[in-house]
Every structure is written in structure tokens, then in C-alpha cells.
Design goal:
The structure is a single chain. By secondary structure, this protein is an alpha/beta fold. It has 21 helices and 23 strands. A hairpin with a 5-residue loop joins strand 21 and strand 22. Helix 6 packs across helix 7, helix 12 packs across helix 13 and helix 13 packs across helix 21. The protein binds glutamine. The site of glutamine has 10 residues, from strand 19.
Length: 565
């Protein structure tokens, strides 16, 4: 009886208590996709955080995949990995980078997750024989997922980005859930709706057209939502007249019509929004307590200045297999921006499809490049080309960084060409190789019978004293995120180390190789983990920073004042 009562109280509490003191900002998008809604949401979060307000964010994705883990990087960009092993939409990377947060898998809600949960409940009979419907069962589930995640984060304000475009059929349940949640928590003070739209410029006189914005706001109003703020994407800033029109026809305060012109860097967007009083408007509207402005804005301006006025530039070749869509490598690109800003160095990226190394001259392909990155990837295509690129970097003293698959490639290359294990390979590409230098670890193999399970999320690496890794990380441990199935076969570790490929980072039990660094080379490093997912504007990934420093040294010589620590 007691257990029953406690369970009942828990369920009620779970549904009611969270609604007290909860504040939500819902960010929707209209007219077209790809407007930078995620950057707007992230920038708003950053600005609130800079005023001492605790924020978190949730991305709602209207697709049926349970998570981004199975999605092709060509189609959807990079799969972003969180501490808890969640494989999520790349927008969560922007949230983490802008707001300096650590999010979890629950911060990404997909239609797939919502339906799975509702169907599981239906099978267990939890709906007591009722007809299970999109409204109210799916919408209630969405509300519960949003509220639970917000409550677990302990944030003052939760920013919810509604993926997709208003008017899309699949976004409707999410809009309805957001509308209802707004009512539940108190529409006036506790919920705000920010709508991002496009204001195109037409004709030779360059007139700004507000009609698409008006139509998309009408779509939003059809769903029962009146926006409180409209962020207008445009080529240049929109003029006062256009702001007035949007304010009048879309029923928003003129102060809340925000102009968001194309920026020189995504990191400029918070500053552009701040100049128009976005955070102050939100704070007033939501009755938030204004804390003293913290130095974050000042530091951010210094960071931005490092990006916009570099004193030098280097070019890094990214040799991979998803090179036609730069979003596939978004976190790497951002890591180079973070690293470059602190070093006052612009980092140009040259994407090269690794297959080209099979038929073209590497020297020609890499002409003018100061460093090479081989990022993560899956499957057999493009592998041998990556090995050619790694060999070229090793033999020609070109700074090299290999990440995840890149670490495995570097290990295979060194095994074949330096350790003399001619047939060295990974069982991923060559299941019957006589020399499986890279293989599935037994414990991963045992998790499922289907070729092993992915090792996902944050794990600790112990770093050897006196190594390059130790000086870059500034200590003997690092906690980085992982997403792989294969790893270095322990049977080959001694032979590889003997020829100079030192595993300076290992799992704490010493069994898994995490970092490799080549002796006698200016900079040839690789890691099994993904440091790019922990890179932040003010604390860049140490390995990307190491590569950029080495590239600067290669291009400008040692005397340019860049120190290694
Ligand atoms: N395909 C490799 C593995 O599964 C590398 C994975 C990656 O680069 N993320 O281990």
C-alpha cells in the first residue's frame, strides 16, 4: 500500500512539480530551413548565461529515427556525441560550444523517441484501453519529455529549438505540445516564442520583402502561437521601415523585431543580438532576475577578435570520405576556429576526398598545406587513400593529426611501413587479415553477437609523463568522448612502440590505446577519442591546437613566438 502511494505521489509530482518556476523559450523557424535557428537559440542561451541565468537547451527533431547514430553524415552532417554516449543532432554541438554546457541524450527529442515511448506504454496497457492518438497522447509525451529534461537540468530557463519549418506536417505535434506547455506554465511570464524567418532582398533597388515573414507568422498563429520575438535573417541589416511593417502585421513589439544579417563568423551572432537588446527584452518579458553582467561577453569579444583579425594563416588538409558536405566535419572545423583564435591564426580548411590519393600525386594535392587531419569514418571506402596521405605526412615531416579512424589509419601505416608488418590491417576493412593490428576488443565483441557494439561517450585516458600529449593537455589525464568499435590490438603494441609509435595515452587499466605520438617527427599525433566534441571557444581541443601550432611553426619557422604550452 505504502509503495503504491509513494509511486502515485511520485507520478503526480513528476507531472506537476516541475511546472513550478519553469521558464521556456521556444525557437521556431519559418520560410526556409537552414536559417541558423540553432545559432540563434545558442546565442540567446549564451547571452542569458552571460547575465548569470542558468540555461539549458533541448533540440526537438521531427524525424522518425530514434537518434542521429544511424544517420548518414552525407545527408545530415556530423553525428555529435555527448558525455553519456548519446549520438545526437549536430545542433547540440552548437549549444554546448556557445553555452559551455554538458548535455545528455535526453536533450535531443525525436519523433522516433516519442512514438517508441508511447507505443511501449500502449503495449503495457498503460492507457487503460483508451484509443491512443496523436492528440493528446503523443503531445502529452512530448510535453513530459521536455519538462523532465528541463527539471533534471536545474536550469532557470530552458531553450527548446523546434526543428523543421513551421507549416511542415511532421512538426505539427511539436508545435501543439509547445503551445499547450506555454499555457500550462503561464503564457505571459514563463513562456516565450521566438520565430526565425527570412527577409529576402528583391530587385535592383534592393527592397526588403516582409511578406514571407508575414505568411510564416500566420502559419504559426494558425497553430495557436503568437510569437513574442521575430529574428529576421537577411543579407544586410533590415531597415526601420521593414521592422515597423513586421511589428504591425505580425503583432510583435518593434523592439522585438530583430535583425540578423549575415555575420562574418557564427560567433559574432550573440554580439549582433546583444547590440539590439535581445537579452534585456527577454529578461524583462520573462521577469527574470538580472544578475551582474559577467565577464563572459568581454572574453567572447576577445575570442571573436582573434577570429576576425588573425595575424597569420595556415591551411589544413582534411582528408576524409564525407568531404562534399562540410557539416560532416562541423566539430573539427569549430575546433580549428577555437584553436586559431587563441593563436591569432586563421585556419583555412582544404577538404580532399581520400580516394584522390590513389590516383593523384600527394605532393600536388597537398601543395600549400601546412598540416593534415584525418578525421573519423566508417566502412572500407577511401581507406587506402588515407594511408597514402598519412605516409606522406610521416615521410615529409608534415604536421599530422589522426582522429578515431585517423588513429587507426596512422597505426596501420606505421605497422606496414615502419614495423615491417606488410599485411597489417583492420578487421573492419579486411576481416581475414593475417595481421589484425586493429580489431574489435573482446569485451565489445561480447556485448552483442552482431559484430560488436560501439564504445560510446566519455572515458578517461591516462597520459604518460613527459609526452607531447601531457604537455598539450597540461596534465596526466584527459576525459574525452568516444565513438568506435575497433581499436589497437594489444598483441602488436610492443612492436609498434619499438619503432617509435608511442602510445602516450591509454585507458586507465592500460588495455586500450588512446593516443599515439611518433618519435622524431615534428608533430605526428593521433587519438582514438574525439577531442573535437569537447572543444570550446575559450578552451580549444588541445590536439587541434597542437596541430595548428605545429603548422604555424612549419610555415613561419620556430621564431614566431608561439610556445608549446
Ligand atoms: N570505423 C572505426 C571504428 O568503428 C572508426 C570510428 C570513427 O572514426 N568514429 O572503430
Amino acid at each position: 500500500m505504502l509503495v503504491f502511494m509513494l509511486t502515485f505521489i511520485y507520478i503526480i509530482a513528476d507531472r506537476i512539480i516541475p511546472l513550478i518556476h519553469m521558464k521556456f523559450i521556444f525557437v521556431s523557424g519559418g520560410v526556409i530551413s537552414g536559417l541558423g535557428k540553432g545559432i540563434t537559440a545558442s546565442s540567446i542561451g549564451f547571452l542569458l548565461k552571460s547575465r548569470g541565468i542558468k540555461v539549458t537547451s533541448i533540440k526537438v527533431d521531427p524525424y522518425l529515427n530514434i537518434d542521429a547514430g544511424t544517420m548518414n553524415p552525407y545527408e545530415h552532417g556530423e553525428v555529435y556525441v555527448l558525455d553519456d554516449g548519446g549520438e545526437v543532432d549536430l545542433d547540440l554541438g552548437n549549444y554546448e560550444r556557445f553555452m559551455d554546457l554538458k548535455l545528455g541524450r535526453d536533450n535531443n527529442i525525436t519523433t522516433g523517441k516519442v512514438y517508441r515511448s508511447v507505443i511501449e506504454k500502449e503495449r503495457k496497457g498503460e492507457y487503460l484501453g483508451k484509443t491512443v492518438q496523436i492528440v493528446p497522447h503523443i503531445t502529452n509525451e512530448i510535453k513530459e519529455m521536455i519538462v523532465r529534461t528541463a527539471r533534471n537540468s536545474d536550469a532557470d530557463v530552458t531553450i527548446v529549438e523546434l526543428g523543421g519549418t513551421v507549416g511542415d506536417m511532421e512538426s505539427m505535434p511539436f508545435l501543439e505540445a509547445a503551445r499547450q506547455l506555454g499555457r500550462d506554465i503561464g503564457r505571459e511570464e514563463n513562456a516565450m516564442f521566438v520565430h526565425c524567418t527570412l527577409v529576402p532582398i528583391m530587385g535592383s533597388v534592393g527592397e526588403e520583402k516582409t511578406k514571407p515573414t508575414q505568411h510564416s507568422v500566420r502559419d504559426l498563429m494558425n497553430a495557436g502561437i503568437r510569437p513574442d520575438m521575430i529574428v529576421c535573417r537577411c543579407r544586410e541589416g533590415i531597415n526601420d521601415q521593414a521592422k515597423g511593417k513586421i511589428s504591425m502585421f505580425c503583432d510583435v513589439d518593434k523592439d522585438a523585431v530583430i535583425s540578423c544579417p549575415d555575420a562574418r563568423s557564427i560567433y559574432e551572432v550573440p554580439i549582433i543580438l546583444d547590440r539590439q537588446g535581445v537579452a534585456d527584452y527577454i529578461i524583462k518579458h520573462m521577469g527574470l532576475k538580472l544578475m551582474a553582467k559577467d565577464p563572459a561577453i568581454e572574453q567572447w569579444n576577445v575570442f571573436l577578435d582573434g577570429i576576425l583579425s588573425p595575424e597569420r594563416t595556415v591551411e589544413i588538409a582534411v582528408v576524409g570520405k564525407y568531404t562534399t558536405l562540410s557539416d560532416s566535419y562541423m566539430s573539427h572545423i569549430e575546433s580549428f576556429v577555437h584553436a586559431g583564435s587563441g593563436l591569432r591564426c586563421g585556419v583555412k580548411i582544404r577538404f580532399i576526398d581520400s580516394d584522390r590519393f590513389m590516383s593523384e600525386d600527394p605532393e600536388h594535392l597537398l601543395e600549400g598545406c601546412d598540416g593534415i587531419l584525418i578525421p573519423g569514418g566508417f566502412g572500407t571506402r577511401g581507406i587506402e587513400g588515407m594511408i597514402v596521405a598519412a605516409r606522406f605526412a610521416r615521410e615529409h615531416d608534415i604536421p599530422f593529426l589522426g582522429i578515431c579512424l585517423g588513429f587507426q589509419i596512422a597505426t596501420i601505416e606505421i605497422a606496414r611501413d615502419v614495423a615491417g608488418i606488410a599485411k597489417a590491417d583492420s578487421t573492419e576493412f579486411s576481416p581475414d587479415t593475417p595481421d589484425p593490428v586493429i580489431c574489435i576488443m573482446p569485451e565489445q565483441r561480447n556485448i552483442t553477437g552482431m559484430g560488436g557494439t560501439m564504445r560510446l561517450g566519455r572515458f578517461r585516458t591516462a597520459i604518460s609523463e613527459g609526452s607531447k600529449a601531457c604537455s598539450l593537455y597540461g596534465g596526466r589525464v584527459c576525459d574525452e568522448r568516444h565513438r568506435h568499435r575497433y581499436e589497437v590490438n594489444q598483441d602488436y603494441v610492443q612492436r609498434l612502440e619499438k619503432c617509435g609509435w608511442r602510445f602516450s595515452g591509454r585507458s586507465e587499466d592500460g588495455r586500450r590505446m588512446e593516443i599515439g605520438e611518433l618519435e622524431g617527427h615534428p608533430f605526428f599525433m593521433a587519438a582514438q577519442f574525439h577531442p573535437e566534441f569537447n572543444s570550446r571557444p575559450l578552451s580549444p581541443s588541445p590536439l587541434h591546437r597542437g596541430l595548428v601550432m605545429a603548422a604555424i611553426k612549419k610555415k613561419y619557422g620556430a621564431g614566431d613566438g608561439i610556445s608549446e604550452d
